[in-house]
Amino acid sequence: MFLALYLVLVNVAAFLLFGIDKKKAENGKYRISEATLIAFSVVGGALGAFLGMRIFHHKTKKKKFYITVPVFLVLLIIACIFCLYQNYHIVVTEYEYEAGFDCRVVQISDFHNQLFGFNQGAILKKIKEQKPDIIVVTGDAVDSTHTCYQFTEDFFEGAVEIAPVYYITGNHEVRMHGERYDEYINNIQNLGVHFIDGQKVELDNIQLIGTLDNNMDNVPKFDTDNKLKMLLAHEPNDYEKYEESGADIVLTGHVHGGQIIIPGKGGLFSPDFGFFPELYEGEHQFGNTTMIISRGLGNSVAPVRINNYPEIVVLNIH
Hints:
This protein is of the alpha/beta class and 318 residues long. The chain is built from 9 helices and 14 strands. Helix 5 (121-129) links the parallel strand 2 and strand 3.
């Protein structure tokens, strides 16, 4: 969303600058420098610059403009297509876990108010295709930088029609406690979402616990030997506490897969501005505890994913 807003603003600015400079030229006034006009094309405003040239009939005969601006317009189109594909091509990653029963768990993490089609149709279709028995959402469904939760509420409204949904908050929700946040939680609970921060839920074959305010303080203890002990958490770095809790399976997210995955090196950075985090995706074993880290679906700090498609995690218990 931030990248789209930037592109709109920089292209509107480029278009206006060409119009203003044309008017200045007609009136014999001090001009906007050609370097400035070209610079706006270079930083993403090539469409606005191109339209400004054509509509205002300005700089159309100068070689540095009639070559440079179209070249950067083509590059802008290629970059936009690339970024859109990287940010909206949803992949499904499946993990296997052996237990005494069968269950398909779909994990959604770090949604960050992302939009995946009209009424979230693309993401909901992808989830439905997995035929989940339950859906778990491991935090940062919303984003603390803005309070328009409609995209997230649309997602939850569709998800509860597919399977029971169990939701815990992440660091972005923790930052946002207030009247609007309380209204949001009330809305999704009315839709049928099970909000389980700091709670223990007994399912047929699973004892499910959600962390509280993004940590393990005041969280109920596992007290079963005949059910799979599943913990929903947001941040993977507390793996020692998760292992101490006795959890069999921990589902986490938060790191967004490192945002940019460098082949042979891994994820570039975490939302906490740590570079090359050790835990950024995949399955990890700590004693008897298996932790699965989702790369998530949305973005926060950086507006673009590279080599890191939005991910739905499917846990096959069999």
